[in-house]
């Protein structure tokens, strides 16, 4: 890049952008007919999105990484830009997205071009990511005969916008299918300097006019990007930047965003050196994509690196910046199991790309939540540079929606209740996992304009209870509604989107002959148990009506049944009908998702009512826990045996006592808080606690008396082994003085007894237990899993290690 006096030209560019800015802003007014909720303003997209069937994976995006290759960049800077670009194309979480990579400089003499498209628009599926891994390396090879040393921003923006708006994918790369009108189009631009076209003849006859004309051309290209719905996200590095110019580029493109979340609209970012651009660019990419980034550890081979994926993540990519293609990477899930480089394993899908390049990535669908381990090895002479691991993830949640009444009349107020879960079946019950979540719904149908309204979990009517992760809102069906209704919920938070599956209903004609109220008990049950419910029916017809009970939106793997399946509503009266929901013996532990529904078969299966389940499945008690009183009340011999067993149990309880153990909360090697277990605070050898994260203050530890689904649990078995069960996760062994992952923090346990040498001892007597492991990952069940915990009785419901034959149960 050649440095010239460009101040006046950039001021002119900024002024023109300020004049052009109002062209970008369009908003939709709130729709009428909303009761108890305010209308939501929404930014109009470049083109209206057509109704589509919801997809299982994350929504795709089309993006271009545009990289400055001007003469001002040192070779090391260009190499770091190249790796940063590779991190983006390898780390993309949707296999339906498309990516292009473009280098740019200037055109100053015959045979030169200001842009160089090293990667054509390519679908980021398995084959496409491998192609992108190869072609992006061309950025590191400059050809001064074919590209000038300046910085032609207008040409770079023009090339990227043209590719994202008018070109199909490159030959042999696939097209990814027809692009939806609402597919986001994003340009990520890397640069170390300013607009410099002073030596480019196409912009004029002298240096001063060229700079001025280049600034005008940039305004025109940004206006073209804005009109085409293309966002511009500039990232600058170094000390010679034009910050005002970068801001103008971000604000000159399309200002729409992937959500209403602050920070998802285009903005410029600056870092000090090229050494920081890989991290900054991935963070920028996550913001533009409405995803989240988890920063893991770094180290030189050989080493074990870790990065934590939260329970709400449904799609993600682990990116490994290994710099040297000779570095070999092996991936292990939170259960300590080596995962395949491609294929299915334990409910997850895996796909590795870039194994022969400087950047490698593991794309995971339905990842097991918790700390993932990345093991790196390198042959002699290839392990000098530090390797870093990060995770880009998004939670695409499924919504279970209840409309009350299920078939409303025009002009009637309707209550809408929403519960959510992941594709793995993890029902979200912890409000901390959904911090900042905004839930809205769109009602459309025949005879009225679409209505948008908010839902809340604040305990204010119509919401029943704050923090129960059931979002509730009301609206009034527009008076003009004449027929079919479609309700679509939208969940928006950093890294969280919804599947937007529609709920279909119909406007009732006149007062319905049959009305119903449906309730299901909130309960904690064991597999094989039943939950009671009540159906209250009023039938104003002169004839009886047959009603059918059913289940919808069930947790995957749940074995649920409702009985009776059909009931009769007698004519001209009201009746109360009890029913039960049976929980099958192979139902995984944890909160159950789904709802009970009732329809009127005599009225074309018209939906009458729905009720969300509020049931948690826990491990059943052992034989000993059920029958110890009967055993100790037997014969004298049995009494003596019982006495002896009691002595041993007392000894085991003392061994399990956690009194005096200190829990230390750390982050990046720094101690944040500590908590010591006092006498009587660890009944049954378990101590429940939580991490409070007050705004603007360090995180602290707090004891949670009685435990609960929102608490972490530290326990000691009768053999003296320490086990940690993070909230919503599986148990893992903990060694005294060694850090263990706990979300964004680490936990160090001090003062505990080490496990006996030679492994765990098997007691002389152990009552029969239910075989099988804990619940599906993140399901909240109390299965005694844990790597290295001894003999296993069988695999868990999700394929993970089963319960230890010598484990003790907290719940």
Note the topology.
Layout lengths: L6 H14 L6 E2 L13 E2 L18 E7 L6 H17 L6 E7 L10 E9 L2 H10 L17 H14 L18 E7 L15 H21 L2 E8 L5 H10 L16 E3 L5 H13 L2 E8 L3 E7 L5 E7 L6 E5 L9 E4 L2 E6 L5 E7 L4 E8 L9 E18 L8 E9 L16 E8 L2 E8 L15 E6 L7 E9 L3 E3 L4 E4 L7 E7 L2 E3 L4 E10 L5 E8 L7 E4 L2 E4 L3 E11 L6 E2 L3 E6 L5 E7 L2 E3 L5 H10 L3 H21 L5 E6 L2 E7 L9 E7 L7 E4 L8 E5 L5 E4 L6 E3 L5 E3 L2 E6 L61
Parallel strand pairs: 3-4, 3-6, 6-7, 7-8, 17-23, 26-35
Antiparallel strand pairs: 1-2, 4-5, 9-17, 10-16, 11-15, 11-17, 12-16, 13-14, 14-15, 17-18, 18-21, 19-20, 19-22, 22-24, 25-27, 27-31, 28-30, 28-33, 29-31, 32-35, 33-34, 36-37, 36-44, 38-39, 38-40, 40-41, 41-42, 43-44
Helix pairs in contact: 1-5, 1-6, 2-7, 4-5
Folded structure, characterized:
The protein is of the alpha+beta class and 811 residues long. It has nine helices and 44 strands. Strands 9, 11, 13, 14, 15, 17, 18, 21 and 23 form a nine-stranded mixed beta sheet that branches. Helix 2 links the parallel strand 3 (62-68) and strand 4. Helix 2 runs parallel beside helix 7. It starts with 6 loop residues before the first helix and ends in a 61-residue tail after the last strand. Residues 1-54, 167-173 and 755-811 have low confidence and may be disordered.
């Amino acid at each position: 890049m050649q440095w010239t006096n460009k101040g006046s030209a950039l001021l002119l560019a900024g002024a023109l952008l300020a004049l052009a800015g109002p062209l970008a802003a369009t908003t939709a007014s709130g729709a009428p007919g909303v009761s108890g909720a305010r209308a939501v303003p929404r930014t109009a997209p470049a083109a209206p999105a057509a109704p589509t069937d919801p997809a299982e994976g994350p929504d795709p995006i089309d993006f271009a990484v545009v990289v400055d290759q001007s003469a001002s960049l040192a070779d090391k800077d260009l190499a770091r830009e190249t790796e940063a670009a590779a991190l983006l194309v390898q780390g993309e979480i949707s296999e339906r997205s498309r990516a292009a990579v473009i280098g740019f400089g200037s055109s100053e003499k015959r045979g030169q071009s200001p842009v160089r498209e090293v990667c054509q628009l390519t679908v980021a599926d398995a084959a496409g990511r491998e192609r992108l891994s190869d072609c992006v390396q061309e950025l590191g090879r400059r050809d001064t005969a074919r590209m000038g040393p300046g910085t032609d921003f207008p040409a770079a923006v023009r090339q990227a916008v043209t590719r994202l708006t008018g070109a199909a994918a490159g030959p042999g790369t696939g097209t990814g299918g027809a692009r939806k009108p609402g597919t986001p189009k994003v340009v990520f631009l890397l640069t170390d300097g300013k607009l410099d076209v002073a030596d480019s003849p196409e912009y004029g006859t002298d240096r001063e006019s060229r700079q001025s004309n280049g600034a005008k051309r940039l305004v025109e290209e940004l206006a073209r990007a804005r009109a085409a719905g293309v966002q511009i996200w500039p990232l600058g590095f170094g000390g010679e930047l034009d910050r005002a110019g970068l801001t103008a580029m971000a604000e000159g493109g399309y200002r729409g965003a992937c959500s209403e979340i602050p920070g998802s609209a285009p903005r410029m970012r600056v870092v000090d050196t090229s050494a920081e651009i890989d991290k900054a660019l991935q963070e920028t990419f996550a913001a533009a994509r409405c995803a989240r980034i988890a920063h893991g550890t770094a180290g030189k081979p050989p080493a074990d690196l870790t990065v934590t994926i939260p329970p709400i993540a449904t799609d993600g990519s682990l990116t490994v910046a290994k710099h040297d293609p000779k570095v070999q990477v092996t991936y292990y899930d939170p259960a300590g199991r080596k995962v395949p480089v491609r294929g299915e394993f334990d409910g997850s899908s895996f796909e590795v790309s870039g194994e022969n390049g400087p950047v490698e990535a593991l794309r995971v669908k339905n990842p097991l939540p918790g700390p993932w381990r990345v093991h790196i090895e390198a042959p002699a002479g290839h392990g000098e540079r530090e390797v870093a691991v990060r995770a880009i993830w998004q939670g695409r949640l499924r919504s279970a929606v209840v409309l009350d009444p299920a078939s409303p009349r025009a002009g009637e107020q309707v209550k809408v209740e929403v519960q959510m879960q992941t594709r793995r079946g993890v029902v979200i019950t912890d409000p901390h996992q959904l911090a900042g979540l905004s839930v809205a719904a769109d009602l459309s149908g025949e005879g009225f304009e679409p209505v948008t309204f908010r839902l809340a979990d604040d305990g204010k009517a119509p919401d029943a209870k704050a923090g129960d992760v059931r979002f509730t809102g009301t609206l009034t069906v527009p008076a003009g509604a004449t027929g079919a209704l479609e309700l679509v919920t939208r969940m928006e938070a950093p890294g969280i989107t919804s599947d937007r599956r529609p709920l279909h209903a119909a406007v009732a004609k006149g007062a319905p002959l049959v009305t119903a109220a449906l309730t299901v008990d909130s309960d904690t049950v064991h597999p094989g148990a039943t939950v009671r419910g009540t159906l209250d029916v009023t039938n104003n017809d002169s004839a009886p009506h047959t009603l059918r009970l059913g289940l919808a939106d069930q947790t995957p793997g749940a074995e649920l049944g409702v009985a009776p399946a059909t009931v009769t509503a007698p004519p001209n009266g009201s009746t109360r009908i009890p029913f039960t929901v049976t929980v099958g013996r192979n139902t995984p532990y944890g909160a159950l998702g789904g709802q009970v529904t009732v329809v009127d078969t005599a009225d074309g299966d018209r939906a009458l009512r729905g009720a969300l389940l509020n049931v948690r499945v826990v491990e059943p008690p052992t034989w000993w826990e059920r029958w110890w009183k009967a055993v100790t009340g037997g014969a004298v011999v049995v009494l003596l045996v019982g006495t002896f067993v009691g002595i041993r149990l007392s000894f085991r309880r003392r061994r399990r006592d956690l009194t005096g153990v200190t829990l230390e909360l750390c982050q990046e090697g720094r101690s944040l808080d500590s908590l010591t277990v006092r006498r009587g605070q660890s009944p049954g050898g378990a101590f429940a606690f939580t991490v409070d994260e007050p705004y603007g203050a360090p995180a602290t530890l707090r004891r949670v008396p009685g435990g609960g689904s929102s608490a972490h649990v530290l326990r000691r078995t009768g053999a003296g082994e320490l086990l940690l069960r993070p909230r919503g996760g599986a148990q893992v062994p903990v060694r005294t003085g060694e850090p263990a992952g706990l979300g964004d923090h680490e936990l160090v346990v001090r003062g505990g007894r080490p496990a006996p040498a030679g492994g765990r001892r098997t007691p002389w007597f152990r009552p029969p237990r239910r075989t099988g492991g804990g619940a599906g990952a993140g399901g909240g069940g109390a299965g005694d899993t844990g790597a290295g915990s001894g003999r296993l009785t069988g695999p868990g419901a999700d394929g993970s290690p089963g319960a230890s034959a010598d484990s003790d149960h907290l719940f």
